[in-house]
Amino acid sequence: MASTTTSGLTRRRGGGGGPDGDSSASNGMGGRSSSSNNIKDSQPETSYESSENGHKIAFDPRDISESAERSKQPKLTLMEEVLLLGLKDKQGYLSFWNDNISYALRGCIVLELAFRGRISMQNDAARRRLPLADRTIEVIDDTLTGEVLLDEALKMMKSSEKMSVSSWIDLMSGETWNLMKIGYQLKQVRERLAKGLVDKGILRTEKRNFLLFDMATHPVADGGAKEEIRRRVRTVLTQRTVVINGSQFLPEALEFRYLRTIALVCAAYAANVLENALSTLGHEARERAFTQTEELLIEYSQWPFPGKKATAATGNVGENLPGVIAEEVNKAKPKELQLEVVAACLSVFTRLDSIL
């Protein structure tokens, strides 16, 4: 099932998800409420405006700010895209044999917060003595995103002591023996992401009987969304010149479009669901795509990004990517500490098998 590459990465096959903290009851989230409640939104909870007939209309300013935030961002978060890749289209659930997806989804939360400019690496010159994953991150903008999981994680990061990328992913995954920090675990992540996708019209909810019990499943309702993600992944992994066209899922004006797509590919690989995007390829093309993924993961788990392909094992696939990524980075020089967090998350993904 697994073969080890010369880079030290372990190639994984198969998709799906095994039981973990995601299956906990929804009322088991009280451990985080005390820390989250310490953060007060800067805007008032209710404001009023006058209508044409002189009556006052109540509204929450946070709803307006969250709507404005959503209009600038892709329709789906990285977590939702990875979950969607792993989901069985008609059955509406993940494979039961995947132990990696839960941890990878928490890593995607940190990635998404970095891409949205909410967190960055702490600006301390001494950090360079540490491996990327062990460098401390901090909240630089606590404005809510409108995405429940992102906002929950953001509030925890804002109210707690500063910790490293790997520490946050571990804690949110429940990978800790410290009972004082078990409250940082984000529970029911898969189910909450699936319900978010139902709200966005991508999935629908059904009841399915599994021998002795019924379970809510979430089959795909909008096949175009999942196919767009698959197409984007295949483009990065099979084309000599990678061109990613704009769509509602990745707007043309979105910052870091190509780097975000590379992060998606690497996260899907770490979550053990990448093969689901490559099922239409022949055997040899699929093997080359996995090799290209491993090279991307090696290259972009370093900071600064090397700007060249790790090896020539995949020929000319993605020949223009180093230049395109360099252009995105150069346009966002003030945001390099955010991109350092992205590289740190990918470095955690390279050693996921040894963590779990």
UniProtKB/TrEMBL annotation:
Q: Where is the composition biased (Basic and acidic residues)?
A: 52-72
Q: Name one Pfam family in it.
A: GPP34
Keywords attached to this entry: Golgi apparatus, Lipid-binding, Membrane
**Keyword Transmembrane helix (UniProt):** no
Q: Show the ranges annotated as biased composition (Low complexity).
A: 21-38
Which Gene Ontology cellular component terms are annotated?
Answer: cytosol; Golgi cisterna membrane; Golgi membrane; trans-Golgi network
**Where the protein is mainly located, per its record?**
Golgi
PANTHER family per record:
GOLGI PHOSPHOPROTEIN 3 HOMOLOG SAURON, TRANS-GOLGI PROTEIN GMX33
**UniProt record similarity statement:** Belongs to the GOLPH3/VPS74 family.
Physiological role: Phosphatidylinositol-4-phosphate-binding protein that links Golgi membranes to the cytoskeleton and may participate in the tensile force required for vesicle budding from the Golgi. Thereby, may play a role in Golgi membrane trafficking and could indirectly give its flattened shape to the Golgi apparatus. May also bind to the coatomer to regulate Golgi membrane trafficking. May play a role in anterograde transport from the Golgi to the plasma membrane and regulate secretion.
Q: What protein name applies here?
A: Vacuolar protein sorting-associated protein 74
| Species whose genome carries this gene | Cercophora scortea
